[in-house]
């Protein structure tokens, strides 16, 4: 369990105080937009509501943080007034965490944020979303197709800043501990993207530009699903969204040009949520079975976990099978190639069952039922934690000494960094660290897991934003502290 209100404590000495820590790039929460290099506590102001407390962390987007409170409020903070789209998405909440207004009285259970959009799930199973208009479902379906390997402009007529983020690794600079980062590899990767996608970058908007009403929906809108559909979780990618129902079905909408919506085609924009056939019509790599019954028996009966990367999607079934679909240029789909996967396709893990999954801009991390960590995809900044900078197009077991004999419990990915929480309450991070998002007190990248110091607290959950990290922790009861 995470934190609980004081009314659930028999005595004050036994109450476990819920605490949220933040680090990384949250420009509105630090002086002069300086990086937050080490875990810093986030206070829930009294204005949020008397007696309220932190409930969980949800990560956040590019430059803003998202969490929930015990009373069911969605809390946002960390953006700055010159950050454009992220400032609008966060409700213009800067240094002080504040409730984000939703058009419902229902309590918020979970939330997720992509590059420039958010989605929130209520306790009643409804989904609200806001941000980039192509990420907000509407009655009209736009079905522009990407054909002949070419990437067409999106509905705004311009490529958004995520495209720039995906091809600009060579310009970011890297200071890696434990292994070199070869900028030449990044350059070749960028050239390959240009070759394969034919993306024109000349028309891109700067990351700090503020889109007009034609590009952006600031007010949260209810996502209309079928009658009786109850959503339990959401995941937000670069420009697409997945939602998981209580029946184990996956719904998707938004941009799908690389197959990240699992339709089998390069659909440009899907403005109406659709069910993604993750089990019934899923392929099993090269060993496809002709019988859908046999396929279902092997894959399971429903989906229990979802994750969105920049342009790829990942789901986990109740049988512990891992399926991926979408952009594959860096091997982030884990099938041994760099091809895009247009339909959900099962990854071979030699009989190992997957428990949890997370996805970054170019990479994927999963945790098995026995607590092992596997990683695959882009590795330009050490985000796979393998001790090298080579990309992996098949799942690779992390055998880092720091994780030896430890049982991983939770995993989260930022754009280019990864964080794992173990069952013994230890937190480890690795990858890109330009903004201090690893929480290690410096700006040095790491290509193997390093322990994040949270002395005096018991970590309960971790969630990465694009360039920052949030930790949910508990302060031990007063009666258990040593004097």
Oligomer: single chain
Total helical elements:
5
Radius of gyration of CA atoms, rounded to a whole number: 21 Å
Strand residues, percent? 35-45%
Structural class: mainly beta
The helix content, as a percent range, equals under 10%
How far apart lie the N and C ends? Answer: 26 Å
- Count the E strands: 29
User: Residue ranges: pLDDT <50 for 5 or more in a row?
Assistant: 1-13, 139-212, 283-289
Shape: globular
List the strand order in the largest sheet: 10-27-26-25-24
Mean of residue pLDDT? 82
Q: What does the largest sheet look like?
A: 5 strands, mixed
Task: Outline the structure in words.
With 483 residues, the protein is mainly beta. Helix content is 8%, strand content 36%. The protein has helices at 85-89, 161-167, 169-172, 183-197, 292-299, and strands at 17-24, 36-42, 54-61, 64-69, 74-77, 98-99, 108-113, 117-122, 127-132, 176-177, 216-222, 231-236, 240-245, 250-255, 269-276, 303-308, 312-317, 322-326, 341-346, 354-359, 363-368, 373-377, 392-397, 408-413, 417-422, 427-431, 445-452, 458-464, 468-475. A 5-stranded mixed β-sheet has the order 10-27-26-25-24, with no helix packed on it. It is globular. The model is unreliable at 1-13, 139-212 and 283-289 (pLDDT under 50).
């Amino acid at each position: 369990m995470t934190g609980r209100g004081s009314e659930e404590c028999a005595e004050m000495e036994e109450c476990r105080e819920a605490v949220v820590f933040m680090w990384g790039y949250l420009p509105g929460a630090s002086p002069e937009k300086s990086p937050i290099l080490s875990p810093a506590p986030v206070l829930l102001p009294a204005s949020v509501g008397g007696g309220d407390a932190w409930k969980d962390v949800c990560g956040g987007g590019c430059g803003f943080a998202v969490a929930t409170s015990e009373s069911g409020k969605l809390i946002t903070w960390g953006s700055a007034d010159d950050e454009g789209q992220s400032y609008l998405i966060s409700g213009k909440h800067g240094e002080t965490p504040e409730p984000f207004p939703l058009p419902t009285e229902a309590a918020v259970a979970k939330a997720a944020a992509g590059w420039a959009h958010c989605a929130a799930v209520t306790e009643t199973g409804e989904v609200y979303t806001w941000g980039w208009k192509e990420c907000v479902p509407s009655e009209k379906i736009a079905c522009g197709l990407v054909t002949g390997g070419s990437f067409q402009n999106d509905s705004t007529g311009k490529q958004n800043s995520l495209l720039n983020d995906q091809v600009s690794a060579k310009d970011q600079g890297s200071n890696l501990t434990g292994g070199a980062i070869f900028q030449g590899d990044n350059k070749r990767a960028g050239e390959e993207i240009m070759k394969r996608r034919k993306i024109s970058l000349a028309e891109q908007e700067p990351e700090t530009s503020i889109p007009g009403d034609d590009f952006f929906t600031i007010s949260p809108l209810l996502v209309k699903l079928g009658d009786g559909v109850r959503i339990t979780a959401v995941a937000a990618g670069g420009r697409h969204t997945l939602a998981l129902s209580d029946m184990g079905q996956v719904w998707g909408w938004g941009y799908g040009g690389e197959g990240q919506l699992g339709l089998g085609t390069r659909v440009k924009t899907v403005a109406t949520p659709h069910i993604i056939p993750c089990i019934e019509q899923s392929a099993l790599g090269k060993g496809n079975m002709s019988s859908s019954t046999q396929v279902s028996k092997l894959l399971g009966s429903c989906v229990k976990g979802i994750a969105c990367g920049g342009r790829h999607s990942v789901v986990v079934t109740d049988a512990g099978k891992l399926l991926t679909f979408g952009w594959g240029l860096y091997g982030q789909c884990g099938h041994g190639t760099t091809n895009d996967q247009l339909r959900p396709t099962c990854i071979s893990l030699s009989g190992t069952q997957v428990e949890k999954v997370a996805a970054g801009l170019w990479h994927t991390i999963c945790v098995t039922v026995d607590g092992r960590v596997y990683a695959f995809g882009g590795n330009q900044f050490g985000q796979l934690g393998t001790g090298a900078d080579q990309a992996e197009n098949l799942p690779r077991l992390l055998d880092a000494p720091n994780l030896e004999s430890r049982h991983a419990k939770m995993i989260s990915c930022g754009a280019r960094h990864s964080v794992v929480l173990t069952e013994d309450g230890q937190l480890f991070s690795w990858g890109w660290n330009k903004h201090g998002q690893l929480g290690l007190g410096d700006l040095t990248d790491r290509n193997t897991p390093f322990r994040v110091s949270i002395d005096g607290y018991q970590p309960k959950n971790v969630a990465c934003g694009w360039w920052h990290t949030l930790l949910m922790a508990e302060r031990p009861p007063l009666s258990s502290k040593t004097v």
